[in-house]
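Hi everyone,

Forwarding the result from last night's run.
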Amino acid sequence: MTWFRRHFGLDPVDVIIHATLTGLAMGFFATVARGPAADVLPMLVAGASVAAFGVRRAWALRRGAADPAGLTTGQMAATRLEELEERVAQLEAAESRVLELEERLDFTERMLAQATGERSIAAGGGPAGLGAAGTGPRKERFHG
């Protein structure tokens, strides 16, 4: 895509044709119009031409942004490479976030296990799940 087309949305030939047709229409209406409309009518044609050019430009720029047609193979490859690099950066950021969450989860599990073990020892039961001597499973007594 050329610099001109990227900024104006149209090829230089299209712009020249548009300007030529506008000039011809202004000249035609300047010679045909008589009286007070002789000065106003060509200016109205010029205004309508500028408005039409703006609409054409906006439509062409919108279409050009959505459609990569007109890009050379190298430009398409560069665009695709740029998109892939952006995606890789996003995945690396997500991976670092997952690693951070895993570390937090491990820390929380260790703290929970330590707190559970301290409560069990304070109750006289030894490590969690073991009897008073720490040699076998604790036997629960039910009064019934």
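Residues 81 and 87 are 10 Å apart (CA to CA).

Cheers,
N.
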